[in-house]
Amino acid sequence: MNIMEELASMVADKVVDVLEERGLVMAADASCAKDVMQQAASLYSIDDVCQQLKISKATLKRHRNLGYITPTRYVGRSPRFTEEDIASYLARFKSDCRSGL
What we know:
This protein has five helices and two strands. The chain is mostly helical. It has two domains: about 5-40, no CATH class; about 45-100, no CATH class. Strands 1-2 form a two-stranded antiparallel ribbon. Helix 1 runs antiparallel to helix 2.
């Protein structure tokens, strides 16, 4: 588990605890609420993806247009990517680069 995932898990746990204390979430719903919070925390913005992959925003946009990577969902009009999206991108991009050689 990387640092961001640990931090997201800690934040999700704390949010659920506070909601339980205030009576806004029942204990049975707590695990569901925790899952939702962790899923939201594991979504990466364009800046996050570019920083993680060490590529520019222009490169990411070009690769999105070429179909190498697609966002899982949008928050408003901002695309969000998961770890699976990034791993799939790396596999797809590497295989296309190798086949072009």
